[in-house]
């Protein structure tokens, strides 16, 4: 979290929180709804928001993808009685780190200047993307 | 809690109090210059709401009831031990040295996968935060104030052109994702819930199903292998007309192994076969038992999660990327929620900057913002008299963080000796689908009377002592009036 964000959190008041729910139309895969919440209409461009969500969805799809690499990893893990999971970082965890970096980058560049804050869904059990809307006032007490 | 009264919270019911804007979180030892010891931050597993047990500082977890897991472990160790002690020497001499090697590999496989099944997070979904719960609540139509439990809420989604109903979980305060089920033994929602296995002492869900499957498959191999070896061993010994009894007397351990293996191999083989079928059709035990996709409820109901290809189904269940644990056991509880010790013995409780009181027409109207959460302190109260407050004072919740208590003033001005306290159970209240007991505790100091309203989920009262043990969560509001 950047210093400015920390300042903002301490000084600004939370006006509202918007929750972007999960989208289950393609099954149990982790995807989020791209529907633009009405509370953000005055705060951010619809295209920008949808772009963020779409990128996140692609990243999560990459994490859960059943490719040849994951198949090889799975077979290898099975042969070692899954003990490799104790020593190695899994593919999913690697992508989660990518996602965390992407969210921080989005917050710094796009959302913080507009008084918004994206919370990494992993901190909410991959249930929702929590967007905090801060009160629109100057950062003085 | 035996009798639960469900009270719909109507935020519009009471007159809106003057709300003080939230200040920064006050530092410990705030206004009176008292330095309070800052407690070491706790790990999230210590405040985990489900019924689980944690070991090694949150690295290992199991269900609270370990079931027959010690029995499972014991049987495997005993049988394998007897095998290596009694049968292997004979078979190595008469047959081949591969036998203990194969047995050893299988034994290690079984043990490792068993421990992984039991000690891994099965895919527990953390409970929804209060803000999320309020948001979900808002999206559902409310039928107004009712005094009974509202009907179960469902949401319909379309998955692969099939209509699936998502149920609302009252404990976890969220709509359960598809294939998720709430385990009543562990009190958790588990993703891709298969079943709660007492033999491994844990739920079997998305994250540990592959361990479980490998465990039962390798166990069936091990059991069959030991059974075969023991039979061969006894047959070889009984050769030459010596008889089975003679063979058994020479190797008594084999009799035990034979008995255990004979009775367990059929059920384990059966279980392996059943789960192989489930894996190949991408089903869970839960769905199979309920017959969700068998078409008995209607026509054209097929499993929407199946890839229609046995190989792909097997891959997606056993070789898919390992999903992460969502409950973050070893993370630290954020500073706003971490416990603060406040000297609650006979010292006066601190003044709460965020609270205020109005005397409104003969009644005392107190508004508190949730500021502190204490645990592990006991209030030693000199109870001289309990205040006969009305059985149900008016309590309502305006937001997840503010509680308003309103009760007649005359009944709270009780003449008691200084530095004593009275306490009274005010009410049971439901806030965000969780039930709390609201206590009124009054400290009368020499110059100030101080009032405490404790919001607590479970309480222990022994004599004059109201104590809250470490595992319970309480919220204490301080207020002071002259």
Automatic annotation (TrEMBL), chain A:
May be involved in protein transport from Golgi to cell surface. The ZDHHC9-GOLGA7 complex is a palmitoyltransferase specific for HRAS and NRAS. InterPro entries: Golgin_A_7/ERF4, Ras_palmitoyltransferase. It is found in: Golgi apparatus membrane. Keywords: Golgi apparatus, Lipoprotein, Membrane, Palmitate. Belongs to the ERF4 family. This is Golgin subfamily A member 7. Pfam families: Erf4. GO terms for cellular component: Golgi membrane; Golgi stack; palmitoyltransferase complex. It is a lipid-anchor. Residues 18-130 form the Golgin subfamily A member 7/ERF4 domain. GO terms for biological process: Golgi to plasma membrane protein transport; protein targeting to membrane. Its main location: Golgi.
């Amino acid at each position: 979290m950047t210093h400015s964000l920390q300042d903002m959190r301490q000084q600004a008041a939370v006006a509202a929180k918007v929750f972007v729910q999960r989208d289950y139309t393609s099954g149990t895969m982790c995807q989020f709804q791209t529907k633009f919440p009405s509370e953000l209409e005055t705060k951010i461009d619809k295209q920008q928001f949808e772009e963020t969500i779409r990128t996140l969805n692609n990243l999560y799809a990459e994490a859960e993808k059943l490719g040849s690499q994951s198949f090889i990893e799975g077979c290898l893990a099975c042969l070692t009685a899954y003990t490799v999971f104790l020593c190695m970082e899994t593919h999913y965890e690697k992508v989660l780190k990518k996602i965390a970096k992407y969210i921080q980058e989005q917050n710094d560049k796009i959302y913080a200047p507009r008084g918004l804050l994206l919370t990494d869904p992993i901190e909410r059990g991959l249930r929702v993307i929590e967007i905090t809307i801060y009160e629109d006032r100057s950062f003085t007490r | 809690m035996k009798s639960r009264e469900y009270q719909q919270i109507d935020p519009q019911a009471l007159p809106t109090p003057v709300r003080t804007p939230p200040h920064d979180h006050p530092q410990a030892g705030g206004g009176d210059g008292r330095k309070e010891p800052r407690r070491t931050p706790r790990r999230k597993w210590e405040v985990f709401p489900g019924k689980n047990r944690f070991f090694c500082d949150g690295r290992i977890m199991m269900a609270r009831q370990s079931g027959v897991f010690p029995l499972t472990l014991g049987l495997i160790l005993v049988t394998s031990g007897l095998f290596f002690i009694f049968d292997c020497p004979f078979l190595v001499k008469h047959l081949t040295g591969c036998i203990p090697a194969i047995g050893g590999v299988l034994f290690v496989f079984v043990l490792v996968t068993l421990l992984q099944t039991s000690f891994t997070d099965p895919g527990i979904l953390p409970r929804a935060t209060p803000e999320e719960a309020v948001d979900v609540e808002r999206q559902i139509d409310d039928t107004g104030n009712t005094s009974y439990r509202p009907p179960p809420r469902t949401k319909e989604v379309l998955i692969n052109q099939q209509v699936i109903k998502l149920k609302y979980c009252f404990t976890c305060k969220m709509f359960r994702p598809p294939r998720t089920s709430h385990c009543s033994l562990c009190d958790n929602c588990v993703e891709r819930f298969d079943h709660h296995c007492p033999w491994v002492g844990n739920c079997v869900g998305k994250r540990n199903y592959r361990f479980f499957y490998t465990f039962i498959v390798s166990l069936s191999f091990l059991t069959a292998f030991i059974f075969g070896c023991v039979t061969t061993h006894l047959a070889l010994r009984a050769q030459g007309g010596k008889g089975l009894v003679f063979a058994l007397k020479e190797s008594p351990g084999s009799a035990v192994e034979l008995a255990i293996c004979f009775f367990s191999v059929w059920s384990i083989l059966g279980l392996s076969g059943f789960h192989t079928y489930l894996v190949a059709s991408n089903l869970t035990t839960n769905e199979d038992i309920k017959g969700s996709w068998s078409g008995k409820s209607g026509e054209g109901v097929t499993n929407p999660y199946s890839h229609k290809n046995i190989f792909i189904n097997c891959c997606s269940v056993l070789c898919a990327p390992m999903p992460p644990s969502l409950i973050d056991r070893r993370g630290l509880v954020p500073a706003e929620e971490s416990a603060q010790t406040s000297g609650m013995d006979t010292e006066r409780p601190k003044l709460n900057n965020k609270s205020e009181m109005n005397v409104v027409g003969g009644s005392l109207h107190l508004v508190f913002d949730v500021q502190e959460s204490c645990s592990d302190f006991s209030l030693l109260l000199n109870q001289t008299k309990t205040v006969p407050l009305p059985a149900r004072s008016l309590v309502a919740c305006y937001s997840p963080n503010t509680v308003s208590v309103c009760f007649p003033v005359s009944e709270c001005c009780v003449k008691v000796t200084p530095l004593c306290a009275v306490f009274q159970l005010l009410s049971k209240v439901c806030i965000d689908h969780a039930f709390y007991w609201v206590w009124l505790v009054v400290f009368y100091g020499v110059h100030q009377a101080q009032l405490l309203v404790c919001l607590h989920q479970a309480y222990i009262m022994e004599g004059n002592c109201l104590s809250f043990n470490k595992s319970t969560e309480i919220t204490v509001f301080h207020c002071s009036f002259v």
